[in-house]
Amino acid sequence: MSVNLATMLREGTKKSHTMAENVGFVKCFLKGVVEKTSYRKLVTNLYFVYSAMEEEMERLQHHPIVSKIYFPELNRKQSLEQDLYYYYGANWREQIAPSEAGKAYVERIHEVAANQPELLAAHSYTRYLGDLSGGQILKKIAQKAMNLNEGEGTAFYEFQEISDEKAFKQKYRQTLDELPVDQQTAEQIVDEANDAFGMNMKLFNELEGNLILAIGQMLFNSLTRRRSRGSTELATAE
Fold this sequence. Notes:
71% of the residues lie in helices and 0% in strands. It is built from 9 helices and no strands.
């Protein structure tokens, strides 16, 4: 038995999707306000989240449902490692740790994998389809906002093994629709996807305070430079 799970997920997570896009950190990001310290903390948390998800999906690659949505070409762990190397340096592994929201997210992924592996479909859908849909736009925003050169700190957004992202998303949605799940299980997957959006929002909310402090410091530094410049100009005029 199969249900239109892709449609159920799209319709059933619309509110959560909108809420996630309206979190302060995300709104700032989309407007081009990105600060490296906050951003690398996000990359750190995503590294732990994707590591957990990809570890479990690989372990469960022969599961009757997980096997259908197991696409190694989607894996982000290696690309996130490249970005962490860029932001932290060669000893990045010794410098990173997940935040409280990151830990909770990782724990949930492992819990689902152990008890209801079919719910991994919700986490895969929430993260990977979002990455494929907005990746290139977010990459360009990040590059411009943080003055990054091509290939610096944005490997996360590059799907080297997927040549046609639009076609792949269509294939992925079709796969979701063909999953051998009943209506009750499909509804549980939608509920889990909404929870996954909530966990992502908590990651962003943690970063919002850091971003506000960073922006405040940037404004303070800018004002200080202007005042200093003004004082120098007055002294020169005298």
